[in-house]
TrEMBL record:
The gene is pilV. This is Type IV pilus modification protein PilV. Pfam families: N_methyl. Coiled coil: none annotated. InterPro entries: N_methyl_site, Pilus_4_PilV. It comes from Halomonas urumqiensis.
Length: 147
């Protein structure tokens, strides 16, 4: 009987990554990390806009509560917007809420009969062309229009 010597099959040698493969992997990783950083920045901007809109909503609610007080003090006659925007009405309003909203408008209330439009507008130039710095709040009081 004759023995046949079978040589083991040779595997191609793998000695690790080449320099080109390593550079491509670093490039893909850096692009992924840049994407994560951009998402983080957008999330922080959105959180800031949310904060500002929450404060603007509270400021608008404050103006509406002042309208209700003025309605009660006048005996059921709807107050004029000029009376509210001037001294005795919302004169301290921008001092209180302007701390939280930069460049807050001093005269936020416009009245037509007993329907009031409270516009809370502030300055925020961090978002380029996007207009994210205003909130309009409309309320109707159940009073009578002044003669």
């Amino acid at each position: 009987m004759r023995m046949v010597n079978i040589a083991p099959m040779r595997r191609p040698s793998s000695k690790g990554f080449t320099l080109l493969e390593a550079l491509i992997a670093v490039l893909v990783l850096s692009l992924g990390l840049l994407g994560v950083a951009a998402m983080q920045l957008k999330a922080m901007q959105s959180a800031h806009v949310s904060y500002q809109r929450s404060v603007a909503t509270l400021a608008a609610q404050d103006a509406v509560e002042r309208l209700w007080v003025a309605l009660g003090e006048s005996g059921g006659t709807c107050p004029a917007a000029g009376d509210l925007n001037g001294a005795g009405g919302l004169d301290s309003w921008s001092d209180v809420w302007g701390v939280y909203l930069n460049g807050l408008d001093d005269e936020p209330v416009v009245a037509v009969d007993c329907e009031y439009t409270v516009t809370v507008a502030w300055e925020d130039d961090r978002f380029g062309g996007e207009n994210v710095s205003s909130l309009v709040y409309v309320v109707r009081l159940p009073g009578e229009v002044a003669p």
